[in-house]
Design brief:
The structure holds two protein chains of two kinds. Chain A is α/β, with parallel strands linked by helices. Chain A contains 18 helices and twelve strands. In chain A, 37% of the residues lie in helices and 13% in strands. In chain A, the strands form three sheets. Chain A has a six-stranded parallel sheet with strand order 3-2-1-4-5-6, with helices on both faces. Chain A has a three-stranded antiparallel sheet with strand order 7-8-9. In chain A, a hairpin with a 2-residue loop joins strand 7 and strand 8. The longest helix of chain A is centred in the middle third of the chain and has 24 residues. Chain A is elongated, with a radius of gyration of 26 Å. Chain A starts with 12 loop residues before the first strand and ends with a helix. Chain B has a six-stranded parallel sheet, sandwiched between helices. The chains are: A alpha/beta, B alpha/beta. Strand 12 of chain A pairs antiparallel with strand 6 of chain B.
């Protein structure tokens, strides 16, 4: 059972059938105290093959991706394609509040486990379905991946940045589109929960990853039929946004007008204190500076000095100076910078989670919010394959050990 | 039974710019009564910043304001004046939820901190969403979404391995509203069960870090600092965004299995380069990715983006057009079918198409409403909610408290 913390969602049970497209949903609900049961096919979910891996050992019990998006969940194995598996699933549905899944549209209905079927078993059940394009429509059966959903969903966003001598790019490393959808699915689930509290009825929540990614403002097209060409900054001069510093990069823009006193001026003052601003820069008229009226020569001259200054400071020093002098400048953080962040430490952000099977404690990104009554928190590490089979099947459903062994042998569990 | 699941929930909305309003848009679109408390003295950035309809400025003509503030009401109060603060407190007494996304510490400084509001309404749920949270050495450090994106490790993992970290715009602005909304909704349920409100001090930085959690584990466990890969992917090859015929037209392609590769080869007409034995297996394609990509590029550059997508999808290959805003609103058959941008009438825009919520609820699929005009609901707010008389309102207008 989940740790006895009174989380915001403690009374609720979630049956989590998702693959990598939806794992984040159950994770966040679990972090908020729900009893989340990750249901995997016997042998384990394919998402366990996603790297990186603990000590680079490619093992389904050592996927750091799996660890990250399955915190606060228990885990059982079950094959819902087998009749016995479906019977067990239906028993579990009776005890649950949410079922979250990311199978192709129509798959659950094909197993007689669609919303209409589940509603008959448990009228209050809330089925949350996460798919690339939604439960219906011309793209319903399209093949999709994170990159493709960046394109078809996040296209307006993706094409708005990046060097225009190369293609638009997605964010590397992790499937951001799936994380967006999984997080958004919690919103839909909890709205449905609120309705259920008033009405007693559950419902089907249909989450399209493409729609979750369609967050970029498109109003200039809607109102003015105007499309900004890719790579157009809208400025007549070329200015840096990302600058080199001693051990990496910082993000910084010079601004003029009334804002300058809060941004450009304090930076130049700091540079001057360290003898790295020449008289021209020290006397610069920021009030009347504008990217629309300045010259490239002016930009280049201020940038040249600024780079020299940045190159004498590390990201950490630049951040400390930004705080001290109140400059709106931030480092381009890499993993090590965030790990060492004094702000995240002060916020008690990192959660040290035990992995007894690895003989290790692993440091996780923890709560996203401080809450005066019930802050979210990671209650346990991600489950091993079938880790809670006995606890759930024997302990809760009252199966005998023999039955469990037989079902396991038959591949239903 | 109402089709609006959050009907009856009342929100005193002090949010502005992007992340805050996008969060309360969720509540409003699902039926909550969300009252924006706005001020001419310190107007919402998106009421005064372009793009405007026909490039004619006006507080009700902004594209971004109108898309992110659907289904809400608006009243105008000068919070800078003591009487304005008192009115704000009266709205809190009416509300279930109070929301702001000012820089850390701001509500406190305005005399509207949680302890003050809780004394007015013991079970109030207060959300303060700021870049870094309300506490810590960086708590009152100002910044926009692009800077948060940089300091949250996103820029570092974006763009090309042979170039400096890539721009990804205001990316964390799109993560934050989800965490805001789900936390409010969870707190709402908690309150429904226990009668207790609470203060939700959300750091957008912390929510953003959840989206890079695996690489943080990689650092903590393996000491590895993740970098950028363009559009490449350890699990797909070829994986990229390829130029198509015309101006700025692109199609994304991601081939994960050998079956998919064979399907791709058939779909593109089985050219010789497809039969190259180096490319038969996934590992072979990966090892020779530098040679393979230009071949795909050369094929794709002659294709019409949407046709390439259709041909490849029909063959069972993972492909998709990089949609432009125009594509989103006019050409994408799926978004059109799903009516993601429903038409709404608007007194100053004529008609426009704000986005609805991505989650479609089968029994309570509520319809969104247009965004409010500035101060449009003053009468409702001051007379109906606060019970003021016409004389009281007139005095407050003269004093500049109501604008």
């Amino acid at each position: 059972m989940p740790a006895g913390n009174d989380g915001m969602l403690s009374p609720y049970r979630v049956l989590d059938l998702t693959d990598e497209k939806g794992l984040m949903c159950g994770k966040l609900m679990g972090d908020m105290g729900a009893d989340v049961i990750k249901i995997e096919r016997p042998g384990g979910d394919p998402a366990r093959n996603i790297g990186p891996f603990y000590q680079d050992e490619e093992d389904p019990e050592k996927s750091l991706f799996w660890f990250a998006v399955n915190t606060s969940k228990r885990g059982i194995t079950l094959d819902i394609e087998k009749e016995e598996g479906r019977d067990i699933f239906r028993r579990l549905v009776k005890t649950a509040d949410f079922v979250v899944e990311s199978f192709p549209a129509g798959y659950m209905a094909g197993l007689e486990l669609g919303y209409d079927d589940l509603e008959k078993i448990n009228p209050g059940i809330i089925l949350v379905s996460i798919t690339p394009y939604g439960q219906s429509g011309p793209y319903r059966d399209n093949r999709a991946s994170d990159l493709i959903l960046w394109a078809t969903g996040g296209g307006p966003c993706m094409r708005s940045f990046g060097d225009h001598d190369r293609p638009p790019y997605r964010i590397s490393q992790h499937p951001q589109t799936y994380f967006h959808a999984g997080t958004e699915a919690v919103v839909g689930a909890l709205v449905a929960l609120y309705h259920r509290a008033n009405s007693g009825e559950g419902q089907h929540v249909d989450v399209s990853i493409q729609e979750c990614m369609s967050f970029f403002p498109v109003g200039d097209w809607d109102l003015n039929r105007r499309l900004r060409p890719r790579g157009a900054s809208g400025l007549p001069v070329t200015v840096r946004h990302i600058w080199p510093c001693k051990d990496g990069y910082v993000m910084w823009r010079y601004t003029g007008g009334p804002n300058a006193v809060r941004h450009s001026v304090p930076l130049v003052n700091w540079m001057a204190e360290e003898g790295m601003a020449d008289d021209w820069l020290k006397a610069f008229d920021w009030q009347n500076f504008s990217h629309f009226t300045t010259t490239q020569e002016t930009i280049d001259r201020m940038e040249e000095q600024t780079i020299k200054f940045f190159m004498t400071h590390t990201k950490a020093e630049m951040m400390a100076g930004a705080i001290k002098y109140r400059i709106m400048l931030y480092p381009v953080a890499a993993a090590n910078d965030m790990a060492e962040s004094p702000q995240l430490a002060a916020r008690d952000f990192w959660a040290n989670i035990r992995h007894p099977d690895l003989g290790a404690t692993v440091r996780y990104p923890g709560k996203w919010a401080n809450a005066s009554e019930t802050p979210p928190q990671i209650s346990r590490r991600a489950p091993l394959i079938g880790e809670h089979n006995q606890e759930l099947y024997e302990g809760e459903l009252g199966m005998s050990a023999e039955t469990l062994a037989r079902l396991s042998q038959q591949g239903a569990v | 039974m109402s089709k609006k699941p959050l009907e009856g929930i009342k929100v005193a909305d002090f949010t502005w710019v992007w992340t805050g309003p996008t969060s309360t848009k969720v509540l409003a679109d699902f039926g909550a009564t969300v009252l924006r408390i706005e001020s001419k003295v310190r107007p919402d950035v998106w009421r005064i910043q372009p793009p405007f309809k026909d490039d004619v400025p006006g507080p009700n003509r902004g594209a971004v304001f109108n898309s992110q503030n659907t289904s809400k009401m608006s009243c105008s109060v000068n919070l800078g004046l003591p009487q304005g603060k008192e009115i704000a407190k009266r709205f809190v007494a009416w509300a279930d939820i109070v929301a702001d996304n000012f820089a850390g510490g701001a509500m406190e400084r305005m005399g509207l901190g949680y302890e003050v509001l809780r004394a007015i309404k013991p079970d109030i749920i207060m959300l303060s969403s700021s870049l870094m949270g309300q506490t810590g050495p960086w708590h009152d450090s100002p910044g926009y979404g692009d800077q948060l994106t940089a300091v949250s490790g996103i820029s570092q993992i974006s763009g090309w391995p042979d170039r400096i970290p890539g721009e990804v715009g205001f990316y964390t602005d799109y993560i934050a509203p989800r965490f805001n909304a789900l936390t409010i909704l969870a707190a709402l349920d908690h309150r429904r069960r226990t009668g207790k409100g609470q203060y939700l001090d959300i750091a957008q930085h912390q929510g953003s870090l959840k989206f890079v959690a695996p690489l943080m584990l990689d650092y903590h466990v393996n000491g590895r600092v993740a970098g950028r890969m363009g559009n490449r992917d350890s699990r797909a090859c070829p994986s990229g965004v390829f130029r198509c015929r015309g101006e700025d037209k692109w199609c994304a392609l991601a081939i994960s299995t050998d079956d998919e590769w064979r399907a791709f080869c058939a779909a593109v007409g089985g050219p010789a380069w497809c039969r190259d034995e180096r490319f038969v297996t996934f590992q072979g394609r990966k090892d020779n990715e530098d040679e393979l990509e230009p071949l795909v590029t050369a094929w794709m550059v002659d294709q019409v983006d949407r046709e390439a997508m259709q041909t490849l999808q029909e063959a069972g290959v993972c492909a998709g057009v990089v949609n432009t805003p125009e594509d989103h609103m006019e050409n994408d058959p799926q978004l059109l079918y799903r009516q993601f941008f429903p038409w709404r009438d608007h007194p100053e825009l004529g008609r426009y198409r704000p986005p609805r919520q991505p989650c479609v609820l089968s029994k309570t699929p509520c319809e969104i409403e247009r965004a409010p005009l500035y101060g449009e609901h003053n009468e409702y707010a001051f007379k109906e909610i606060l019970g003021m008389t016409d004389d009281e309102i007139a005095e407050l207008v003269i004093a500049g408290v109501i604008q």
